[in-house]
């Protein structure tokens, strides 16, 4: 059953190659167009609007007893009022967008995470412990201070609106002034990080509770173009081959991208969504089994090490291991990667049949045409099965039924080109994809011209 709510929108006034765009998301939304037209930019803008990188550490500076801190998502200003007492205020920040997106302006409806932070408040009183795994103290501090910090400092925090007050008991007396100042700053810096992370996690939890209420979305998943590398690195953990892919990602700077960090985290939980697995089975010739927290792959009863599996299998595994629940909004970058034409046809069927709300970017005319004709003609399960039989597939029954069930979906197509984004109907696309049919027509005209030229040359050479 699909939640019929299409309130979520992306409005771009200027963002990288996109000069203007008004995009209403459906159950399935397809971004297509030439390279460097803004498809991936729009995907990433939506991802970061809904899923800010909360794992970023706070950078903290102290001048006298005044505190400034920020991590690009939240700014903090406060003061060490006295020993054992801190007050600070926090405010949302969109600085992180400047780091991960090109320059420009965009908005997301019904609200982005930052919009949510501006309009909702947290009220909470709680107790916790702050522990220091290791700390270098000045010579003025004796060992008792180090022992106290390692054992943990109990603190209470009171959060009201955007104001926070923190009380703690250091548990040691008669500190020298240099030692006291150093310890107070260390404790304050670490408390800011710990409480700041809690505040952001509380906001994210409430944000998705509200988004689920409105849109039926509990989380956001970005399936990146680099997914095969990430999937192989995760599956090959403990294999004889070294983890060179993770090293390579770090070397070229990709490991610092939050969408890849989050994707690795998703993959590391090697649990399989059985509903997704049933849809993918026509494309997977063998069997995938879970043993503990380890996945194995077998074909005809033989164990196939991951280093010997095909690129297409790794592509399919990247989907299988990352989509965990149907309430997840899935943002999928170029699903045709590593897939043969036949598999592109089938992955189109699977994307159409998935229960998740889905946004994809693609260059594949096979995927675009298939999705447009599915939307236009709404085939029945037996009609889908007829196609699968002609392709000599097996285990397709669940997918055929899911395709028919998906015919009630709202599918939207957006053509990115020349700085603008145009919505196209399924009927328009089925008559010829802009930017693709034009190129193909020019290509065939050119080949035809060359063909007749070669015949003429041959006749002249052999009069």
UniProtKB/TrEMBL annotation:
One Pfam family here: AAA_15
Species lineage: Archaea, Thermoproteota, Thermoprotei, Sulfolobales, Sulfolobaceae
Domain Endonuclease GajA/Old nuclease/RecF-like AAA: 9-368
Highest rank taxon of the organism: Archaea
UniProt feature coiled coil, ranges: none
Protein name: AAA family ATPase
UniProt cross-references to Gene3D superfamilies, sorted A to Z: P-loop containing nucleotide triphosphate hydrolases (3.40.50.300)
Organism: Acidianus ambivalens
